[in-house]
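I hope you will forgive my troubling you with a question about protein structure. The record follows directly beneath this note:
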Amino acid sequence: MSVIDILTRVDSICKKYDRYDVVPKDSNVSGDDAFARLYASVESDIESALQKAETASNEKNRASVVAINAEIRRIKARLLEEVPKLQRLAVKKV
């Protein structure tokens, strides 16, 4: 099998499964794809929680740390509610 044949097969496989790729953060999520919209919102919530955790680790004031950690717990609880929705939508998408 030559390199050209391999590249041709890889391109055809990539085109076939291209619709299953996750939408990048920077692009606009289409309005009709519920999975992509929900996934993008969950991913942005995770990023914000990670940033807050980094802020809490650098914070000196204990009261601020407690408040930030409470906010992180709220985000985590909200994300745990979104996981079953994502699983249902993932099954529909595949």
